[in-house]
């Protein structure tokens, strides 16, 4: 029997290999396209505390002017960030569903059955890894005999690659379950930030203990979720001392601006 063309086999396999990688990279690609380097631009090197006082004051003024000019215009920025995080969870769940379909419904319970297998008595064990990834299988070979007719031979074939596959997919099972759990908890946390503005000062203060709580509360009360998220991300990316000085000045500026408007 003629062997299949190698090119045809590889054409069928390569998309399956790269599809999970492409799906996992998509949320990052979308966020990079939407964010456009905004945070890196407005930080302007203020993540390093060792700089000249003149340069530091100049950069803080530029950042202050930007935030005051664009106040309450960053809601879409925050929502897109949360959307990309939600997309990561959807992606992980989608990967689990695709793999479960690929293994005929055996993947969802794969890790649980492997853990249960290790606790069973030796005589009662039924290895789920061998069930899904058999190491020995029946093979049928056909070849031309001496007279030119096709002869069929039955034999047993060893599949050494499945020894690697069973370990790889048990790792992927645990990895996907851990990621799905952590992402679910993260999205609940984000939902609390969106739905409960009263928790935002505590989060901002907890991120940088050098910020007085009353300042964190004042800034959080006078900004919407988009501006608050920008301030939170700046808190993560700026030098803590510089950020403390900056947020104190920003609180005063916002208060003065609101008083003028009133």
TrEMBL record:
Q: What does this protein do?
A: Structural component of the gap junctions.
Where do the TM regions start and end? 78-98, 173-199
Q: Which GO terms describe its biological process?
A: monoatomic ion transmembrane transport
Q: What is this protein called?
A: Innexin
Q: Which Pfam families match?
A: Innexin
| UniProt record similarity statement | Belongs to the pannexin family.
Mode of membrane association: Multi-pass membrane protein
- Give the UniProt subcellular location, in the record's own words: Cell junction, Gap junction; Cell membrane
Q: Which GO terms describe its molecular function?
A: gap junction channel activity
**GO CC term, one of those recorded:** plasma membrane
Question: What InterPro entries does its record include?
Answer: Innexin (IPR000990)
**Keywords for the protein's UniProt record, in alphabetical order:** Cell junction, Cell membrane, Gap junction, Ion channel, Ion transport, Membrane, Transmembrane, Transmembrane helix, Transport
């Amino acid at each position: 029997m003629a062997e299949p063309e190698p090119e045809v086999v590889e054409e069928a396999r390569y998309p399956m290999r790269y599809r999970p990688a492409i799906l996992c990279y998509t949320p990052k690609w979308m966020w990079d396209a939407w964010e456009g380097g905004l945070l890196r631009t407005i930080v302007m090197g203020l993540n390093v505390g060792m700089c000249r006082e003149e340069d530091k004051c100049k950069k803080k003024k530029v950042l202050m002017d930007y935030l005051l000019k664009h106040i309450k215009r960053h809601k879409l920025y925050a929502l897109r960030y949360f959307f990309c995080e939600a997309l990561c969870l959807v992606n992980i769940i989608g990967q689990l569903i695709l793999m479960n379909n690929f293994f005929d419904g055996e993947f969802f319970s794969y890790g649980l059955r492997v853990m249960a297998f290790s606790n069973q008595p030796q005589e009662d064990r039924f290895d789920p890894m061998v069930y899904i990834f058999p190491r020995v299988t029946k093979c049928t070979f056909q070849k031309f005999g001496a007279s030119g007719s096709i002869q069929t031979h039955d034999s047993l074939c060893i599949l050494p690659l499945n020894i690697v596959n069973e370990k790889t997919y048990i790792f992927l099972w645990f990895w996907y379950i851990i990621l799905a759990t952590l992402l679910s908890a993260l999205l609940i946390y984000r939902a609390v930030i969106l739905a409960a503005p009263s928790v935002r000062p505590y989060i901002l203060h907890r991120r940088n203990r050098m910020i007085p709580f009353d300042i964190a509360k004042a800034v959080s009360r006078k900004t919407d979720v988009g501006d608050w998220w920008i301030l939170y991300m700046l808190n993560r990316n700026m030098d803590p001392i510089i950020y403390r000085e900056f947020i104190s000045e920003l609180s005063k500026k916002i208060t003065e601006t609101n008083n003028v408007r009133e």
